[in-house]
Amino acid sequence: MDNYKELDRVLSQPYLGDAFYDADVEYVMDVLLPSLKQGEWCALGACLEEKSSLYKYKLAYCIEGYDTSNAFNILMNLILCHDKNILEEVLHLTIRNIGNS
Q: Please, how many CA atoms are within 13 Å of residue 56, restricted to the half-sphere of its CB?
């Protein structure tokens, strides 16, 4: 679960302003997400309830356009969260992804 731990570490980092988008989005999208094994996707989905809204937002942002059933399941888990901003972002990303399929 090294890739999951690294993904969790990156998404948990407190960033100022747009630093996350400038520094780590490509790393998450191009390296970490494609490297996750099935068990790591499951661990990621299982931990979401305890994660911060910012963590969830960053994850949703990185999953955009990632076309797998695992990514779709994560987005569905995020839709069930109680944070209005996260819900709006995830719904927006989900609708865009469905439109691109």
A: 27
Kindly provide the residue ranges of all beta strands, DSSP E only, lying in the chain, ordered along the sequence: none
Range name among 44-48, 49-53, 78-82 with the lowest pLDDT average: 78-82
CA distance linking residue 32 with residue 62, whole number of Å? 10
Q: Over 60: is that where the pLDDT of 6 sits?
A: yes
Contact of 85 with 56, CB cutoff 8 Å: no
Q: Are 4 and 18 in contact (CB under 8 A)?
A: no
pLDDT for res 101: 52
**Contact present, 94 and 75 (Cβ < 8 Å):** yes
pLDDT recorded at residue 37: 94
The alpha carbon of residue 30 and the mean position of all alpha carbons in its chain are separated, in whole angstroms, by 13
DSSP-derived secondary structure letter, 101: -
